[in-house]
Structure formats: structure tokens, C-alpha cells
Amino acid sequence: MNPSEFSGRHVLVVGQGLAPVAEEALAEARFEIAAGDRLDVLGALHAAMELVLIDAEAADAVDLVVAIAGLAALPNPPAVLLAGSHLPTSLVRALMKLPRSDVIEAPFAAVDLARAAGALLAQAPPVVVQAPTHEVNARCWSVVGSVGGCGATTIAIELATALARRSGPNQRVALVDLHLADGAASAYLGATANMMLAEASAAPERIDTSVLEVFATKIGDGLDLLAAPRDAKAFAKVSQTAVCRLLEMSAQVYDWIVIDLPRHHQPWTMDVLAGSDEVLVVSELTVPALLSARALASEVETELTGGAQPRIILNRLASRVFGPAPSLAEAEKALQRKADGGITSDWEAAAASVNLGGSISHHRPRSKIVRDVGVLVDRLTQPADVQRASASRGVRA
Ligand SMILES: Nc1ncnc2c1ncn2[C@@H]1O[C@H](COP(=O)(O)OP(=O)(O)O)[C@@H](O)[C@H]1O
Ligand SMILES: [Mg+2]
Description:
The chain is α/β, with parallel strands linked by helices. The chain has helices at about 20-25, 60-70, 90-95, 110-120, 150-165, 185-190, 195-200, 210-215, 235, 240-255, 270-275, 285-305, 330-335, 345-355, 360-365, 370-380, 385-390, and strands at about 10-15, 30-35, 50-55, 80-85, 100-105, 140-145, 175, 215-220, 225, 255-260, 280-285, 310-315, 340-345. The strands form two sheets. An eight-stranded mixed β-sheet has the order 8-9-7-10-6-11-12-13, sandwiched between helices.
């Protein structure tokens, strides 16, 4: 494309420093120019705008991710060319959600900019497809450990992968790790943690379904992971509104949501529990873990009148018990309630999967853990009357 070929095209330049080279490169275009801190202009583009040139260095990276995600949600977004060097991965991922986008590495000459802009504009604008309106009837299961290390994260991962496999290609499942400071789900799955919830907390109303797509990491088989990168101060930074908004948007996008919930109370814990169709308290078969499970389950019941009744899942059940571990009857006595599910111990499968990065159902599909999680999913997805009948048979069923 030579400069005259941009004649009359509507181009927005974000970042005044980029304006001179843009004006040289796309000489006869119709320019609008905004400062790098005026990303709000991207939220109010007129329909004729064809190309947006952004100086990534002039704008705040997180604001830019949010603004670009907003563009990606438009029915007919303009082409976007981002200029900068060493661009953060999150920014590049946000850009990839746009039908027409490219990156130009700084420093560059006017001729390079003209070439990149020309190539983008030469691509056909996307065909507008009306997205089907998603009925909001997502089901949400929260998994919480009675003590650290009892297997809550492992079970949350296996539940989410089992649901994703069963529900088929038309349904989407999210595993949401709310251990915001040091969640383990991304490491267990060998996946990157892309959820910048702390940054988004400054303007939680901007967390919409397109921002969610940027936050999500695809795991495969219809499963997405929403997990925050490690940040020791994350719990102080993430607001209650941001967590609620995240889950509200997730319910619009996903059919199933499995939450790996921290057991320590956060300002948003009760909101999460109140929005959960199932609350699964995971315990191991040790006396302290069982007593904690009992206390946690009754706390949830007291604080959440009318909400989901917590269910106890006993993890790492040994087929042969070595040492003085409580029997199931003793465990249920300590719990003062029946256990609703039991997962067999299989250290080899659990360790191999976390070391390889991925679910146990992927790396060790024949593990008893996978079988037992399958039984639990069957039970929890049965209609309520069938559930009541099998509940009376307890873990042994
Ligand atoms: N059923 C099981 N059999 C054997 N090992 C398990 C089982 N469930 C979990 N583990 C292992 O126990 C350890 C703690 O599990 P994790 O899911 O991180 O617990 P939590 O999230 O409750 O802290 C991990 O090494 C995990 O692989
Ligand atoms: Mg955990």
C-alpha cells in the first residue's frame, strides 16, 4: 500500500508520540489522535473507525489489556496495530482475541508502519455473527479443604476435568482458583496463570466476558483455568466486588464452574458459598482433619442458612490401612455426619500427574482416583430425589 492508498481511511492513533510517524506513513488517512492515558476513547469508537494504532509504551499495560478486550467484544471491531517492544504476554493474548491485529516492534520507520497497517487493512473485515445469547444457568461447585494438604486442589481439578469430558463440546467448564496469593492449580496443570484480578480490582465493572477470555487459560476438552499469578499481597489487593463480578461473568460464559476455595475466611467467602450449588469439604482420614471438617461444615451451615448443605468428601482412603487410621465408621462419628464421597489413595498417580503437569484423568486414566471422582460426579449430577436415596447409602454405595 502506498500512502495515498490510506486516503480517507479512518485511523485512531493512541499515544501522541506515535502521531508524527503515523501521519508520515498513512499520509492521507483521516486521523484522530488521543493521549496514551485516554484509553476511554476505545470504548466510544464511531462505526467508521477502521484502524487503531496504539503506542503500547504510552499506555498503562493493564488498562490496555482491558481496553483491547473491550474492543474484541464489539460486533465489528477495527483492526488494531500495537507498537512497542517487549510487550507483556497478557497484552499479546488480548490482541489475539481480535479478528485483525498485529504488533510492530519499536523502533520502526514510517515505511514499516505503512506496510503493517496496509496488510491489516487488506484483510477482510470479519463477518458479523450474532453470538447466541447464553442462558445463565451455570452450576457452581466449591471445593474447600478442611486442613492444608488434604487434597482439595487435586479433587477440584479432577471434578472439573470429569465435568468437561462428560458435558461435551457444547458446554464450557471453568476451574476457578481463588487461592489468589499462591494457588497451586496452574502448577498442577502445568498451565500459565493469566487472571490479573488484583489489577482489575481498581475498576471491577470493567471485568466483562471479553476480559474473562483474556484471564482464562485453555486446558483442553472444554476446560478453562482461571488462576491468578503468584502475588503474596493478592488477598489485600483483590476486592469483594472484583471476585463477585468475576464469578458473575463466569456464570454467563460457562456452564459449570468448579472453585478451589481457600478455607480461611475472606470478605467474599460467603458470597462464593451462597452462589454455590454444592459445597464440598474435603478431609483426609486423620483425627485433626476430621474435626476441622466437622467445624468447617457447621460454620458454613450456621452462616449460610438456606444455602447448599456442605458435603464431606474423604480423600486418600486406603484399601489397606496401615497404622492407627480411623475407620470409616469412626470417621463419620468424629464428623457427626455421613461422608458423601470417598476418594481412594493413589500416590503414584497423584504425584506423576503433578510432576508431568495435567490431570490424573489425563496421565493415569485408570487410577482409582479417577473412578471415585466419576462416582462422585454421577452422584452430584443426579436429580435431587435419586441423590437423597443414594445419600442414605453413604460412601459405601
Ligand atoms: N487421593 C489421593 N491419593 C494420593 N495422593 C493425593 C490424593 N489426593 C491428593 N494427593 C496429593 O496430596 C498432596 C496435597 O494435595 P492438594 O490437592 O495440593 O491438597 P490441598 O489443596 O488440600 O492443600 C499433593 O501432593 C497431591 O498430589
Ligand atoms: Mg490447594
